[in-house]
Amino acid sequence: MSCSKPEQVHKFASRQWSSGSLMRGLSFLNDQSKKEQVEYGDILSVAKSRLATLQAQNGQVPSTPEARVRAVTSPQDNSEKGEMSEDDLSEEEDADAPQQQKKATEEYKKLAALNAKLARICKPKAHSGRLEVSQEIHKQWMAGGEQRKSLLNILIKANGDKAVFKKEIEHMQRNRIKAVCRYCTAKSRVKTHVRRDKYERNIREFWVDVATTGAFERENEETLCDKTGAEGTAVSFDLGLPAEQPQVDDRGPPSDPDDSDAEVGSGNEDDSDRSTRTKVPRPGDVQEESVFEAHENIPEVVNNLLRVQGRMDTLYEKVSAVSSNEAQESLKKVDKYRSTLGNLHDELADLKSYFDGHIKACSEDEKFDKANLISMLR
Q1: How far is CA 131 from CA 122, 126, 150, 164, in A?
Q2: What residue spans carry the Acidic residues bias annotation (predicted)?
Q3: H or E element: which one contains 204?
């Protein structure tokens, strides 16, 4: 019989244990990063400025490569005469630079100290959790940003005095409460902004805006409207008689059989009266009147055509600026209408000039006859 060894089972740490270790390590790193970092650049600059100040007091030249080069190459005549060279001026500027850096460093340290003091005032105590300021001031400090800057400015104005700072913020808070009460107790808002406490009726509650949120939107809207209108008479007219003119009987309109006897009995009446009663306009008279009326209307019709044609040109320019398929189809129609209007205008202009020329020729002739003129225009 062969005996087999039992398989060894390796137990690994559970996933929960490894996750807890990672979380503890992450929290440790966060704590380390929250500590104040030492700015080595500022310390080095302060040390250099201090060294330069001490060397200047002892009358020694700083042992830098630039200083050694200036000491070798600078002429001694200017120093003997008391004149300052460009190198001396640059050395003075270099001597002033550490002082400026020192002032900036001191201001930075003061500001950092005031900021730390503000944090100690506004934070709750580590052991007791008690706050030295009100909850509103604590929330303002926790919000950060402009609210924390305003609190820091108040502390700077108080020269870092905690008592003066507390008095100032309490005074601001009281003014805020007074303003809220004055706003809510107005006659127009007292019914909607003030109510009694549910459990203690002697306590009044005011409606206060805790936070304000808003959204800013910008909308652009563009519309294109085109209207075309015309004033005047109709643009259509007839030259001469229409194609389907009713036939006019020279014998006059048909009479009723009852009136025939009356006409026979009135034979003594004047022929002139009878002609006036039964007079019907002749075809020549109708044609003559329509021709001359059409001639008089030609200038007005031409003006209307020019007005409409100008508006069609404007519409053509606006539609051509649009690049859609519907706009292109409309553009073709507008172009067709433009060409039609142009042809009508040219025909009317030719007709008017032809008519005016014949009237002038007939007026110069002694034997002016309207019938001849109408026959020429047919």
Answers
A1: 7, 10, 19, 17
A2: 85-96, 256-272
A3: strand 204-206
